[in-house]
Amino acid sequence: MNDRSREKDPFVEEQDWITQGYTYPLLDNPIRSKLTNDIHPMFSFELDESPEGAFVKARWGGLTMKDYELLDQPLRLATQWLESAPSSDAICSIIAGERYIPPGVPMHHFEFRHHRLLPSTVHERAGNALKQLGKSVTFRIADRASFPKVVDLDGDHGGICPWFFGHPEGIAITHDPQKKGLASTTYIHKKYLKTLRRLLDHPSIKKLQILKLYFEFALTICHEVIHAVNLAVESELLSTYIEMGDRLVETRRNFGPVRVNEPFYEGQRVAELGLFWENEVFGGVCQQSVPNAEGAIFLVEWPSWLLQQGRADPERAPTPSNMCHKSLVSMWYIQNCQTQEFWDTVKSEHSQDLLALRIRKNVSLACELPQSKEDDPTWAGTARENARKLTGMNCRRELSDDPDPTPCAGLANETVLERSARLVRERQWSSWFREPSVPWLFRRPRHC
To answer: Which residue of 151, 244, 431, 441 sits 20 to 30 Å from the alpha carbon of 80, by its own alpha carbon?
Structure first.
């Protein structure tokens, strides 16, 4: 991370960048093993079958095979995240959780509860849903200039657009073939690919920036896939498109924009399923810095005012606190998630751990909502945590040494020094068991 990037976060101190791995001499060592797991079939270069009215099977639009191959590692990471225990649990709540219209919410908004599936069936049900979704979902690397009427990507990371004409009768991704929703196309901003090409021109000196960009791309595509999962079970929205299609199908014109009212998760204040998924998997929402490859990633508590500024997501009472926290995501975590050793351990020893991927919050910034001279009356300021101790965009640095919630989360967040200490302990234990003829109580201590 360069000095200019650090200046954007003046409340983070120099020692914080060091402890969180953004500036550390040991990182000059070779990066550990790359991911070798299979890429999920939904991310394949081509569809298995051509959609109705199409003559090609292209899943990624006009993306060349050469550029597609650049996305190999982030697509493998996205596969691991989507198939993880916390992700499967969140997906099952979207597709199998009870939906109802609660009192006091905006018009036509549903709420859904956590699923009631047996733990032993969750991974299979979520996996089947992603497999079925993969038969129809398509992807585009785009920007506002390329697709001005389809989706607004200006200043955003990605977006999603229902795709009706390719599947006019809808698609089914659950065990109930009668429960149909909409197919969709996911759009990823081309700034990811543009930045990646630039970094790969200097792979030996930009390896950490490349890992960070892989992390951000994988995060964005997972976020949008979750929106695609919800569209695939939105039966009422499918009915709306079918009614519109009866009037437009002869002209082959596309629809005008139809508002997608995503459901609220039980008790949550904001309806945004991509952020809901991030919160369930990581314990917050990752605030990216792309296309600035030198910038930091922060984990922001959700819902919070910091994430909702400039967004149009449906909200409901109670109004949020005007104080929220964002925590520095360590480079150790970003690197560990992209090693095959970590995921092999997850699958063999922690496959049911719903907290396996939670991110540490060692270095945090308490950020207050900037207040004008006339305070917004919709924001409560009576609770202790809402006390206006700061002004403008000021933040307060806070440190924490809270333990990781599970051993697997400890591996995900493991620093280079913690890893070295763990390997030493493992070697010591293995040396004891290699001398079975000597009773352990009478062994002499080893001297360095």
So the answer is: 151
Residue 436 exposure: Cα atoms within 13 Å on the Cβ side: 0
d(CA 111, CA 296): 34
User: Which DSSP letter does residue 248 get?
Assistant: H
Nearest in space to 16 (alpha carbons), one of 400, 304, 325: 400
Give Rg (Cα) of the chain: 24
> DSSP labels for 344-385?
HHHHHH-TT-TTTTPPP-SEEEEEEPP--SS--TTS---SGG
What is the arithmetic mean of pLDDT over 221-231?
95
CA-to-CA distance for 371 and 194, rounded, in angstroms? 37
390 pLDDT above the threshold of 80: no
- Whether pTM exceeds 0.70: yes
58-105 tens-digit pLDDT: 899 889 999 999 999 999 999 999 999 999 999 999 999 998 887 766
SS3 of 285-300: the string is: EEECCCCCCCCCCEEE
